[in-house]
Every structure is written in C-alpha cells, then in structure tokens.
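Shift notes (night). Ran EAL domain-containing protein while the centrifuge was going.
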Amino acid sequence: MSGVSAHKIDGNAGEASGGSHPRTGSAARAPRWRFLILGRIANFDLLRRHLGRARADILAGDLSRIINRALPQARSGVSASDLIEIAFEDYNRQSLYRAATTIEHLLNRPIEIDGELYDIDVLLGAAVADGPPTDDVRMIEQAELALRQATADRKVVIRDAHAAHESVDRIALARDLSRAVANGELFLQYQPKMHVRRQRVAGVEALIRWKHPERGLVLPGDFIPLAEETRAILPMTLWTIRQAIADQAVLTSHGHDLRVFVNIAGVLLSDARFVEEACAIVADHADKIGFEITETSVIRDPESAIANLKIFDDIGVHIAIDDYGAGLSSLAYLKRLPARELKIDKLFVTQLTTSNRDPLIVRSTIDLAHALEMEVVAEGVETQAALALLSVMGCDMIQGFLISRPVGLNALITYLQDERHTEAVEDSRATFNRLAATWKRG
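Came back to this:
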C-alpha cells in the first residue's frame, strides 16, 4: 500500500472493541439494504515474519478499530488473524461503495506499527442484499466468493446475494458451461494496446464473454473460475485461440495487421494435451498470436510451465507476463520465462499520480523489463496525467479506458479506422511537458 499520511497503531492494543460480532450483531432499525464486507490482509505472512507472530496476530484487530472510528455505523470485527469483517445496513445501495472506498483510503497508506511504517495490503470482497431478509449463510457465502475473486483480480469485488441465489447455481452453471462452446454462446471482445511513442495501436487483448440463453451475460468472474475447476477451461481456451486467429484475419483484411493476445489459465500451462493442441492450432499463425500468462500461474508447476512456454516461444508465439506485481513477482522465475512483454498490474497504475511509492515501483519495473529485453505495457490507464508520467518513464504501451473499453470485433474495426483514436496519446504531450520537468531519474 502507498501514500503520504499514516495511521498509528499502539503495540499494546488488544482485540477490536465496540459491540457485537459483525455477522451476528443486530441493528436498531431495518433498512432496505444489508452489506457484508470481508477484508483480507494479503501480505499477512510477510508482516508476521517482520512483526513476529504475537504482534501480527492482533494486527487485524488494530485495523478493525481504524475502520470502526471512520465508519461508526458499521460493526467491524475480526474473524481470523488475517481477516476483518464489516457489516452494516442502510437505505441506499451507494453506501456500500462509499464504505469500500473509505476503507481503501484508510488502509491504502503506510501504517505505523510500534514506531515503524508498514504497507498493509488489504483486499476487499463484499456481498449486498436488498428486499426480503437474506439468510446469513448466503451473505457469508457470497462475500467469501467475492473475496476469492478480489484476491485473483486485485480489486474490490461486490456480489449481489439475491442475484447469486437466483442465477449462480454452480452445478447448473457448470453443466451449461460444458455445452457453451458447442452451442455458440461464447464470444470475444477486444481491448487495444496503444504504443506510446508510435502513437498507434500495437495489438489487442481478447477477452472471453458468455451470453447464456436464459441467464443473459454471465460475469467472467462467475464462469472462468468455474471453468478452471471443471476442466471446461480446455475446450474454452482452444475455442478462444481459434476465434482469435479468425478475427485476426478479418482485422488484417481491413488493413490492421495486429497481434491478438489470448489469456492462458495457469492450470493449462502444465497440461500436455493443451500444449499439443494449441501448437497445432497456431502453427501457421504463431507470429500473429500472443499468450498472456500470470506470474502465479507459473508457480503452480514451474518446471513444466516454463518448459511449455519455451515450446510456444520456439514456434513464434509472443509471450506476455500479465498482472505483474499483483503476485509474488519472483525474479527467480522472471529471468527464466521466455517473455517478450511485461504488463504492469493496474494496482500500481491507478494511483500513479497520487502516490509517492507507486511511481518508484513502476519506474523500476520498466527499467528491469527493458534490461531483460521486454517491452512494457501499463494496464488500467484512465487519465492523461498517468499516460504522461508513463511516457516520461519510458513505458512502451498502455491499455485502459483512456484508450478504449473492451469492444466487439466490428466496433474495434470502426475504432481503428477512426484516426481520432490516437488523440489520447497526442493530448498527453502538454501534460508530458509539465511532468517531465518535475520527474527525475533515480
């Protein structure tokens, strides 16, 4: 976590005080909306090594008290050494978003513990329910699922407990997912990567979507983890590669010969069948296809994963490391990966212009990647100021809502044919000139 100001924690503090346990405490009134937020200390093991077990085990209680002071209407308590729960009710659903933002701001800065500053990495998953009373078990289940997804995505995730009960029946969804490819229910959207210096789109990332015939659009966070658990991820990914190749040919026919990147789940990197079939599919198109893999996916089975990535690299597939910095960021693995591209996780990009530490992390990552002969993509770029600072730092490409949201193939072609799509990069020059005077190489 980063920032300027710091909270101070007294090492003699005990457990969180102030009322009942958040899951069971009763409210004085019964508003329409119920909320349950789970906050996990993602870097708890690291903190425990520095602070010692006894001190680390009461850290969640310290953080709970910070939250209680800022959100007096909520009931905050400790569920485990690394887990905080915050429950409250309100008449307005927006209260949940305000509360989550408040908690992020509270903890997204160095915290002083016994005279030393520490970065506390807290991830938030939440459940919300309205209307008729929702049983506690369902609220807890959905909050835990949200926290699991938040851990994977490195961002706040909110799940609707009522909608989940009605529409996310995992057994039925798994059964339907196994037939989704054959039934033609999957489709792809594309998000461009803009080259900063060349001021043109340098490639696109393919993002899979599922339009269920009865449920409508199913969130990727609901069906992708399920696909990995049920092995539906294999046919789904092979379909994605085939479709990406077909769509790349369409782009080329319209004068846009761009490389298309496909996300590869960690469970597939050590799967011999996937490697064999994927190689056969891309054999004649390898120079037009890229595979994006995460750091954590390699850690599952590093020897097999690295060996298989080298097979893809040998036939010409462009390998990119996705979400760099969100996982363990192990240099031991990084130097062995045959990657040509490194994508900095949006966790470090979204606060680039407001944090003291994130620019240092991003700059050092860019320098490291360049030293390893990799190009760098910054994810989650949403402002001209962030783009300008990334340009000063030497970032090669950017991706994010400032450039384009994920769009369908036809919309992508229209976007590429409109010369105004480079305006975001061109408009950064004024901001670039202001920031260049203040940014100094370390």
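The chain has a mean pLDDT of 83. The longest strand covers residues 200-212.
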